[in-house]
Amino acid sequence: xxxxxxxxxxxxxxxxxxxxxxxxxxxxxxxxxxxxxxxxxxxxxxxxxxxxxxxxxxxxxxxxxxxxxxxxxxxxxxxxxxxxxxxxxxxxxxxxxxxxxxxxxxxxxxxxxxxxxxxxxxxxxxxxxxxxxxxxxxxxxxxxxxxxxxxxxxxxxxxxxxxxxxxxxxxxxxxxxxxxxxxxxxxxxxxxxxxxxxxxxxxxxxxxxxxxxxxxxxxxxxxxxxxxxxx
Amino acid sequence: xxxxxxxxxxxxxxxxxxxxxxxxxxxxxxxxxxxxxxxxxxxxxxxxxxxxxxxxxxxxxxxxxxxxxxxxxxxxxxxxxxxxxxxxxxxxxxxxxxxxxxxxxxxxxxxxxxxxxxxxxxxxxxxxxxxxxxxxxxxxxxxxxxxxxxxxxxxxxxxxxxxxxxxxxxxxxxxxxxxxxxxxxxxxxxxxxxxxxxxxxxxxxxxxxxxxxxxxxxxxxxxxxxxxxxx
Lengths: 231, 231
Prior knowledge:
Number of domains of chain A: 2
Shape of chain A: globular
Order of helices and strands of chain A: EHEHEEHHHHHHHH
Strand content of chain A: 5-15%
CATH topology of the largest domain in chain A: Glutathione S-transferase Yfyf (Class Pi), Chain A, domain 2
Oligomer: homodimer
Strand order of the largest sheet of chain A: 2-1-3-4
Helix content of chain A: 55-70%
CATH class of the largest domain in chain A: Mainly Alpha
């Protein structure tokens, strides 16, 4: 396969610059590997707004591919699919793409608010010092509650999160990947969600006795194989 | 297109035999129309176990197609896709099928338990007299609560149902159908859920100012067009 120059990605980093915990950046990282393209990341923190302002975004991921900047993980996935039609498809056709959008919304609007409430202490703890007051102010405004109030809801949020996962677990008890016999972008969306959880506070999703843990390991295994092919 | 004999379906009916309210039977009804096959239904009640025992099932839908009986709405969809490959595809490929299974589980395990709690009074009210004690006993065993206790949770369940719909509404604000630009089986799964609600107690999902109501009308419109073509 023709070698392309690496795609650059601004990637949310913790205080430990090696720890990358954004579920949205993970989506893009998996998508780039799926397309067998090389990736270089630039660690970025929530307050580094200036670094990406010129790309028209306040948030990551932002990628720069051969001089073109694209932001927003969903738009990046669509961009990659259109720009690299000869590489493995990310969506597996128009129905796969339509349904992947639902999975994207399910992650963003059902799972993520529960994870934020469940893991708020752990997320706050790994942030770079300079990000803490920004994170506190923005999340307190979003939820209308202090971080301490959110933390009190953690046990309740953990239970609701487990409940919300039932359809996913049931599906993965009957087929290898969310998208069937091979992973596609919808698998990466949800795998990104679990990468976020495991990065901030390992929660046992790597237990492969559970269909969900088995799937999680399979997606990561597939990703690592693709990385080897992109190298 | 070659004319085939009608497929027979045992279809859950209310006291009013014309009222068909099973979300699972609606899935199959939509799927048969999508394949442009003709359908004849046999009204069936929860307690008519004997009528379908010979097909190895205690529940509907059960279809009989050219002498072959198939039960369980998901298995019927897979059967139709395999038996009629020259008719319009129900899943739109293997990724569409993988993700449709998730939508199936999401309807069954996230939406339906909330709807049962939300609409329990209305569901009970439309049942045939002979089904009432069966329905009461089976649902009370499933939830570990009396129907009256479930009914008290209705306002809470209605709120949780609205919350659960957020990802669907957001998706349908950005594309015409759940599966993209055309409806496929995953659309029918969820449309069956709304047919159930609207059959037992109209809840305003036909408001087309709402992306969800707009989609609901579009799926039904598409279904009616297919019916005309199957006739």
